[in-house]
Write a structure and sequence with these properties.
alpha+beta, five-stranded mixed sheet, 5 helices, about 40% helix
Length: about 210
Amino acid sequence: MDAQKTISRIMGVAQLLKHKPGAKEQAQLVQQLTANARRLDNTVRDLSDLDSLVTGTITLELRNTDLESLIRRVVEESGIEAEQDVRVEAEPVTISIDRTRTEQIIQALLRSAGDRTSAGKTITVRLLHERGGAKIVVEDESSSDASLSPMVRRLAEVQGGWAKVEGRDGGGSAAQVFLPAGGSTATDATEPEEGQPEPEPAAAEVE
């Protein structure tokens, strides 16, 4: 798409500027430009992926990924920390996932939590190592009746995982996403029923 080509050019220019010597203010502007270009790129991908997500024909690009580093980068680039108290509690996890689709999931969860969270409340992003993959949890303290975006659910499902949202003890909501190592070829994971233990997907071979 022409929009994606334009975004790629913007990000390329931002990367060139990033490596040139300059004032601290310039470096901050470059960081903001890169972050906004990345968010716009993922928004365009969201729109272009709608048909593929519905039909299940989306193409995945699985790459071995340091999921903790990816989450911390997405949180930083989201700009949410300027308005909310955000805490990241992450275990070291490296698995094979589609990085772009996973970024889209995290961004959507952060946007949703940020919209619900009032001043003085905390958003907590947790990364937990699970047998056969990893679980990403985004918790907020404000609303116990949050709903999960259909886009998030489908982006998890096409990677062989699941997504759900539950109320937290003491108030608030916890959105949970499980991603298996190796994507949709690794498991046919399904969302656990209420009161039932979560399934333990088989570990996938990662090249």
